[in-house]
């Protein structure tokens, strides 16, 4: 995984965001992370469009162990690795924030290795 370019959090755009471009398994991958007042938006694309859109959030409960809810809003519903990717990210986000996650994945390759690299890149450039 090689980072081609990296931009720092913008102060000009009213929403805090980061945009990076990197190579994952031979595919140019663009990642945009936005921090809104009520949620995080993470867009990852290798195909130039949004792809599948997922929503993930931490459920508030009285139990000690947290519960996470991940659902496909639009796109492929038969890709368990996409759900696992959203789950990993919301678990990481919930350590520092209570905001839910909207995740867009437009990937050429849905292999576990690609998704692990995506998760690592997002966590390394997080805004939470």
TrEMBL record:
Pfam family for this entry, one: PAC3
Example GO BP: proteasome assembly
Source superkingdom: Eukaryota
Any one annotated GO CC term: proteasome complex
Classification via InterPro entries: Proteasome_assmbl_chp_3, Psm_Assembly_Chaperone
Keyword annotations of the record: Proteasome
Protein name: Proteasome assembly chaperone 3 isoform X2
Species, as recorded: Phoenix dactylifera (Date palm)
Encoding gene (name): LOC103696123
């Amino acid at each position: 995984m090689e980072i081609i370019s990296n931009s720092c959090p913008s102060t000009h755009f009213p929403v805090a965001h980061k945009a990076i471009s990197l190579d994952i398994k031979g595919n140019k991958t663009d990642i945009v992370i936005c921090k809104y007042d009520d949620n995080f938006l993470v867009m990852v694309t290798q195909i130039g469009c949004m792809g599948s859109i997922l929503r993930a959030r931490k459920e508030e409960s009285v139990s000690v162990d947290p519960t996470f809810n991940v659902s496909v809003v639009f796109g492929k519903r038969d890709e368990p690795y996409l759900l696992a990717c959203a789950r990993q990210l919301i678990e990481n986000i919930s350590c520092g924030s209570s905001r839910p996650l909207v995740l867009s994945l437009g990937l050429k390759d849905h292999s576990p290795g690609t998704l692990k690299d995506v998760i690592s890149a997002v966590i390394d450039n997080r805004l939470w």
